[in-house]
Amino acid sequence: MQFIDELLAILLSLLCLGLLFLLLKKPLINGLTDKIIKRIMVDPYPENLIEMYNVLSKVGLQNVLETDLRGTSGEPLKRPFGSPRQLSPWDKLLFNPVYLTRRPLPPEAVDTKVTIGRYAEKPLVIDLPIMLGGMAYGIGLSKKTRLALAEATAKLNTATNIGVGPLLPEERRLAKKVIIQYHRGTWGNEEETLKNGDMIEIQLGYGALGSAQVKLLPKEISTEFRRELGLRKDEGLSFGAQMPGVRNGTDLAALVRRLRQITGGVPIGIKIGATHWLEKELAVMIRANPDFISIDGTEGGINYGPGILADDLGLPSLPALCRTVEFLKRKGVKDRISVIISGGLYTPGHFLKALALGADAVAIGTVALLALAHTQLTKVVPWEPPTNLIFEIGPDKDKLAPEVGAKSVMNFLLSCMQEIKLAMGSLGRKSLRELSPTDLCALTPEVAKMTGVEIGLYAPIGRNSM
After folding, report:
1. What's the structural domain count of the chain?
2. I want to staple 448 with a disulfide (CB 3.0 to 4.6 A). Which of 130, 316, 377, 442 is the partner?
3. Residues 55, 122 share a domain
């Protein structure tokens, strides 16, 4: 009884305080507001609260925050999802629907199947031109996240990419198509692992990392991954700037041949982060006779990429794609070498524009993780970021429901595929191989010059744009 009386007394006191606040809040708020306004109006700038607004306007909220983070750690800054900059002007390109000049098609008449490495002994055939980019388990994503991604891609018969992490046995069982990266580290490149891949991607670099050396701190490596590699508790992980044993084009060609022999003829490709020296790099790459080339624009995300590499290194995805396709066509190898583009592609419109400009497929990362987290974000926000839920080192990773995440990613991909079919039907294109730059128009002269498509602000003169 005493406890109940005390509880009632507390509730009554709170009620009285609430009523008192309601009665007094108007004059209290009014008085407080008056004091703040007067203080702002008369205080000199060095003492004025508005000085912080001036600093934030000049430097930017993110730069102020990252200055403090650098000042705290003394280590390179590592953002989970790369740079916030949107450098590729995808929104300056629009599709050209047809009405009478070519027959529009219903979406059910559109085929979105893709073949990567069509001249390989075992080409990769997927039902939609959207695959997952490399996102590693252990030094990035949690096991539950990786399994959810594998299940989602399996249901729609597209591919998942294990990145620089190990291949999980459960993931191999769940996924229909697995891309294995042959990377610059000393783990995961064993023949037995490679034989489990439906496609092998020789990863020389990323858009948000370039060819920089990577050093991972002990706290950035999961306990299970550490156990697999035999690392001490205080031991970090690193991989060099250059692929071991690959000093030049001759070494690269030998590696492609060796991987082709080990894997029994699955597509072997090469991945680099985009660069202004693209054509020079591509010239070396095509002499290695790959089945595909992956180009990652600077907008790509990577959880261990320092700020300067993510923000200020490389080339955006759109010009990188156009230059890659143009170079391969000029060398007469575009039909033989498939092109995969990634980095900053988030919407069905982005995907289809990339395909019309010559990509055979697109690879996504950040947007797939956002789709996976979906409503499960409520388990961590607003107090913790989404990375706590989906990353291996995230304290809330066990709260993720993989089957729910898999369904969310599947729905996202399915939605994108349906929208792509609708748009292709409006273009009068029944397969992805029929797409071309003539299905696009540009809104600025700069984008028209970059992409080679006609500018849509003027009537085409003396050109057959169909």
Report:
1. 2
2. 442
3. no
Please tell me whether residues 279 and 422 are part of one structural domain.
yes
pLDDT recorded at residue 220: 80
Tell me which residue has tokens 């991989």.
239
Residue 95 and residue 130: Cα distance in Å, rounded? 19
Domain containing 127 equals: 90-451
Report the DSSP beta bridge partners of residue 116.
124
pLDDT for res 278: 97
Same domain (yes/no): 312, 405: yes
The pLDDT-based confidence of 76 (bands split at 50, 70, 90) is confident
Residue 466: pLDDT band by 50, 70, 90 thresholds?
A: low
pLDDT of the residue at 21: 64
Bridge partners of residue 321, in order along the sequence: none
Residues 6+ apart with CB under 8 A from 314: 207, 208, 210, 273, 274, 275, 297, 298
Q: Which of 266, 121, 256, 273 is nearest to 179 (CA)?
A: 266
For the residues 295-321, what does the mean pLDDT come to? 90
* 213 assigned to some structural domain: yes
Whose CA is closest to 173, among 195, 199, 154, 145? 154
Per DSSP, the residues of 302-327 read -TTEEHHHHHHSS--HHHHHHHHHHH
Q: Which of 48, 49, 76, 53 is nearest to 64 (CA)?
A: 53
SS3 341: strand
For 415-440, b/e burial (b = at least 16 CB within 10 A) is: ebbebbbebbbbbbbeebeebebbbb
Is residue 3 over pLDDT 70?
A: no
349 and 243 co-located in one domain: yes
CA–CA distance, 82 with 330 (Å, rounded to integer)? 33
**Cα–Cα dist 208/298, whole Å:** 5
The SS3 assignment for 431 reads: strand
* Sheet with 177-182: strands ordered across: 130-132, 361-364, 338-342, 292-296, 268-273, 199-203, 177-182, 159-161
Q: Is residue 424 part of a domain?
A: yes
For residue 171, give the amino acid letter.
E
Please check whether residue 428 lies inside any domain of the structure.
yes
Q: Which of 170, 357, 200, 366 is nearest to 291 (CA)?
A: 200
